[in-house]
């Protein structure tokens, strides 16, 4: 019984700390310690330590012997590398999905493309980021290639922290909505090549917008 409880507490600590990192409550580059986090979460240090170890494996935390932990900084190279891979993966997924998505699935995509958020408002921002992930996931799933879908989802999860950082420093509603509807239009036309190019362009628009806003804003949390 104690073992199950321990695992449960570790999972709870992991979920809470991971979300704090992703949404920016624990900002990139910030130092954290087991005792402080354990006190905040009202847990013993053991589940917190195990949760931090898991976050280190995922690359969201860094451990320093006798010093504690640091939230992994986000660098321009990280962002550029990540979007380069996303463009290739999601472009291929969109091309395949153009031949496979049903009308019902396309209607769902249209609805997800209309999701917006209020800049600075946490609840709507979380809904927006979740809807964006569902939009891209649905297209990747529509490719009919489970391995490709899995790869896309892995990179989308890595991008989540960047999305939250971006929503705080600029309004990305218009470009996201317009790009998403453009992608859906080509998917409806069953035009694989145009869908592929539209997805690649969308990823590049997002990358450039994030880059410009974060470099211009010293509080964005990105490291040059």
Automatic annotation (TrEMBL):
PANTHER family: TRANSCRIPTIONAL REGULATOR, GNTR FAMILY, UXU OPERON TRANSCRIPTIONAL REGULATOR. The lineage of its organism: Bacteria, Pseudomonadati, Pseudomonadota, Alphaproteobacteria, Hyphomicrobiales. Residues 7-74 form the HTH gntR-type domain. Keywords: DNA-binding, Transcription, Transcription regulation. It comes from the Bacteria. PROSITE patterns: HTH_GNTR (PS50949). InterPro entries: GntR_C, TF_FadR/GntR_C, Tscrpt_reg_HTH_GntR, WH-like_DNA-bd_sf, WH_DNA-bd_sf. This is GntR family transcriptional regulator. It holds the Pfam family GntR. SMART domains: FCD, HTH_GNTR.
């Amino acid at each position: 019984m104690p073992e199950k409880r321990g695992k449960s507490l570790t999972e709870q600590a992991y979920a809470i700390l991971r979300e704090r990192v992703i949404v920016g409550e624990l900002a990139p580059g910030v130092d954290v310690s087991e005792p402080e986090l354990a006190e905040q979460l009202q847990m013993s240090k053991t589940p917190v330590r195990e949760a931090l170890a898991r976050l280190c494996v995922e690359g969201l935390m860094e451990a320093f012997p006798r010093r504690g932990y640091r939230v992994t900084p986000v660098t321009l190279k990280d962002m550029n590398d990540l979007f380069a891979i996303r463009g290739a993966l999601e472009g291929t997924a969109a091309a395949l999905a153009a031949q496979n998505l049903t009308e019902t699935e396309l209607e769902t995509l249209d609805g997800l493309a209309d999701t917006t958020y209020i800049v600075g408002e946490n609840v709507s921002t979380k809904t927006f980021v979740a809807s964006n992930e569902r939009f891209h996931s649905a297209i990747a799933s529509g490719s009919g290639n489970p391995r490709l879908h899995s790869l896309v989802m892995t990179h989308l999860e890595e991008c989540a922290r960047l999305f939250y950082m971006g929503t705080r420093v600029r309004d990305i509603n218009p470009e996201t909505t317009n790009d998403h509807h453009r992608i859906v239009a080509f998917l409806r036309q069953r035009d694989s090549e145009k869908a592929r190019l539209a997805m690649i362009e969308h990823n590049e628009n997002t990358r450039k917008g994030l880059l410009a806003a974060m470099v211009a804003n010293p509080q964005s949390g990105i490291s040059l």
